[in-house]
Structure formats: structure tokens, C-alpha cells
Amino acid sequence: MNLEIAQAQFGVRPPVQKPIPEFLIEMGEDGIRKLISDHYDAIKASDIYYLFPQDAEEFEAAKKHSSDFIIQICGGFPHFNQNRGAPQMVGRHAPFAIDAPARQRWLELYRPLLEELKSSGVTETSLNSFWGYINIFSIWMINTQA
User: Fold this and answer.
1) pLDDT of the chain along its 146 residues, tens only?
2) Residue 62 in contact with residue 96, Cβ under 8 Å?
3) What's the rounded Cα separation, in Å, for the pair 25 and 146?
């Protein structure tokens, strides 16, 4: 599995490919919600937690919103649009000072979770597809030079 982190050039938004439909099929909505929840739990114990809601209820809501977005982007039910409107993720992240090192750390926290999914039967093709999406799309969220 290729979990290399693409280099980010500030202000450049490279083209993004959505994860293949098999990722959602293999994971299911519940599996994606668990992946996102586990990722947020890792964030909470990390040095980038300051970028996330500090209030427990708001933090749990952020997990749900992120799960809804990933499910939708993977071709699932449009939970995000129904609950929050159009994603407009760049704008939603604008209030937070996200630099390249924070993006890198965010991605690094996904690595062990994806390795675990591989060992539990999610195909490498699906995991590479998901990684490819978050790896490149996360570049779009960088709004502050390090």
C-alpha cells in the first residue's frame, strides 16, 4: 500500500480523484464512521488537536459531519448536503490556520488506521483510492504558510 504524503505547494489545488465506489462497498457506512471516529480520537491525542473543536459535543458533531462528507464523496447517501448544505470545504476550513505540517500530521494519523483496515480485509486498491483522495484534497485545506 502506498501511503506516501504528496508535497504541498501553498496556493496550488491539484486535481482530485474521488475514492472508487468499492471503498464504500467494502467499508459500509458504519465502517467509514468508525474510521473517521478513530481518526478524530487520534487527533484528540495529537499536537494538532488545537485545530479542532475543544467542546466535547462539538467534537462529536465534527466527527459526524466528517463521516457524512466522506460517505457522500465516496458515492453514498448525501448526508452532508442534507444536514449541512453544499460542502464548500475550503470555506468551512478557512477560519482555521492550517499549514503544511498540520496537514502532514493529519495524514500521518490515518496511516495506522488504514494499515489496520488492510489487515481486516479491505482491499489495497480501495485503501489506495481513499488515501489518494485525502492525500491530495487535504492540500486544498492548507491556508497558512508554515
Assistant:
1) 999 999 999 989 999 999 999 999 999 999 999 999 999 999 999 999 999 999 999 999 999 999 999 999 999 999 877 777 777 778 778 888 999 999 999 999 999 999 999 999 999 999 999 999 999 999 999 999 97
2) no
3) 38
Q: What does 91-144 look like in DSSP terms, one character per residue?
A: HHHTTS---HHHHHHHHHTTHHHHHHHHHTT--HHHHHHHHHHHHHHHHHH--S
Phi, psi of 119 (to 5 degrees): -70, -15
| Integer CA distances (angstroms), 143 to 39, 87, 103, 107, in order | 22, 17, 10, 16
Q: Is 76 helix (H, G, I), strand (E, B) or coil?
A: coil
Contact indicator for 123, 19 with CB cutoff of 8 Å: no
Can you list the domains of the chain with their CATH numbers?
21-141 (1.10.490.10)
Cα first-last separation, the chain: 29
